[in-house]
């Protein structure tokens, strides 16, 4: 986007900068805990949301509900982000419906059956599956959908790494619970971070901004003990909610962030600040 060349800020309509009117935003993992908050938020700001998720997550159903609520066309797409042909189909279905793509949020993640297994016991199969969905899936959507935006005037990509690709997990968090953070997850998200940084300069001249949002401890009916442990370690003293992550996406998708690329916006309650 070419920003207005002026230092008279009073000539700028700042509210308008945050609007997403008519923009087409693809959200992978769009039926998930945070994905559905992204979808609702971009819909409230005037966008057409494309909900892309595995069939079991029923992305069409969510798209239909958003369409009815907001009175604007929304579509769903069942896919596996790690399959090239599926991501090509996502791009083609979006373009045949709307003729444009303005934004991509990669909010998918894979939790295998033995996701929380001890590092020493982690199987090749589980390791590969986590890397395949989280990292390869992000590579494919960036290449195919980000690549389309790069050839068609630009857009905004938001990838989602993790607190545990930024810092190591504090193992005290899991005391008395059966939760944890597998190394495969951290490693996959470290790859997402590096890929995002790379693309932010690679596509800068094509007007594709590539940023990241790092959520942290998004509440999803966690065990009470986990929530207590979390509160003690968090500067803001609590877990977060999916809607607290979504505002960051509206900002990064909109013209309000026109000079921001290569950034990782930490929505972590200060977790990494101390
Ligand atoms: N929840 C948190 O506290 C937290 C913290 C940091 C980062 N994150 C990251 O934020 C993103 C969203 O997290 P969430 O809590 O909403 O997760 P979630 O598990 O609720 O949602 C993930 C979605 O991805 C979908 N998915 C799984 N495999 C897929 C595939 N192969 N193809 C397409 N879709 C697939 C799932 O069906 C699900 O709807 C993830 O990338 C996650 O790693 C979450």
Task: Offer a quick outline of the entry.
With 274 residues, the protein is an alpha/beta fold.
Low-confidence stretches: none
Number of helices: 9
Please give the CATH architecture. Answer: 3-Layer(aba) Sandwich
Rg, Å, rounded: 19 Å
How many distinct domains? 1
Walk across the major sheet and give the strand order: 3-2-1-4-5-6-7
Q: What do these coordinates show?
A:
The protein has one domain (19-115, 123-163, 182-215, 241-267): Rossmann fold, CATH 3.40.50.720. The chain is built from 9 helices and 7 strands, in the order αβαβαβαβαβααβααβ. 42% of the residues lie in helices and 13% in strands. The mean pLDDT is 97. Helix 2 (35-44) links the parallel strand 1 (24-28) and strand 2 (48-53). It has a 7-stranded parallel beta sheet, with helices on both faces. Helix 2 (35-44) crosses helix 9 (242-253), helix 4 (84-98) runs parallel beside helix 5 (124-151) and helix 5 runs parallel beside helix 7 (183-202). Bound molecules: nicotinamide-adenine-dinucleotide. Residues 28-29, 31-35, 53-54, 57, 79-82, 107-110, 133, 137, 160, 162-163, 215-218 line the site of nicotinamide-adenine-dinucleotide. Nicotinamide-adenine-dinucleotide is lined by residues 28-29, 31-35, 53-54, 57, 79-82, 107-110, 133, 137, 160, 162-163, 215-218.
């Amino acid at each position: 986007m070419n920003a207005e060349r002026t230092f008279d800020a009073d000539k700028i309509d700042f509210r308008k900068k945050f609007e997403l009117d008519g923009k087409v935003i693809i959200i992978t993992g769009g039926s998930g805990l945070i994905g559905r908050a992204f979808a609702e938020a971009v819909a409230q700001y005037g966008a057409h949301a494309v909900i892309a998720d595995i069939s079991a997550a029923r992305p069409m159903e969510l798209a239909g509900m958003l369409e009815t609520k907001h009175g604007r066309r929304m579509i769903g797409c069942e896919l596996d982000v790690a399959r090239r042909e599926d991501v090509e189909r996502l791009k083609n279905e979006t373009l045949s419906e709307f003729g444009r793509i303005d934004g991509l949020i990669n909010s998918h993640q894979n939790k295998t059956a033995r996701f929380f297994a001890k590092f020493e016991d982690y199987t090749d199969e589980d390791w590969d599956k986590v890397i395949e969905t989280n990292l390869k899936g992000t590579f494919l959507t960036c290449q195919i959908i980000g690549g389309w935006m790069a050839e068609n005037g630009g857009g905004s990509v938001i990838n989602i790494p993790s607190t545990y690709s930024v810092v190591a997990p504090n193992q005290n968090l899991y005391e008395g619970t059966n939760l944890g953070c597998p190394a495969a997850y951290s490693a996959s998200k470290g790859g997402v971070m590096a890929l995002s940084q790379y693309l932010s300069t690679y596509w800068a001249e094509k007007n594709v901004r590539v940023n990241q949002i790092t959520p942290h401890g998004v509440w999803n009916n966690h065990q009470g003990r986990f929530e207590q442990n979390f509160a003690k370690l968090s500067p803001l003293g609590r877990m977060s909610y999916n809607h607290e992550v979504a505002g960051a996406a509206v900002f990064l998708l909109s013209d309000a962030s026109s000079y921001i690329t290569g950034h990782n916006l930490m929505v972590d309650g200060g977790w990494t600040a101390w």
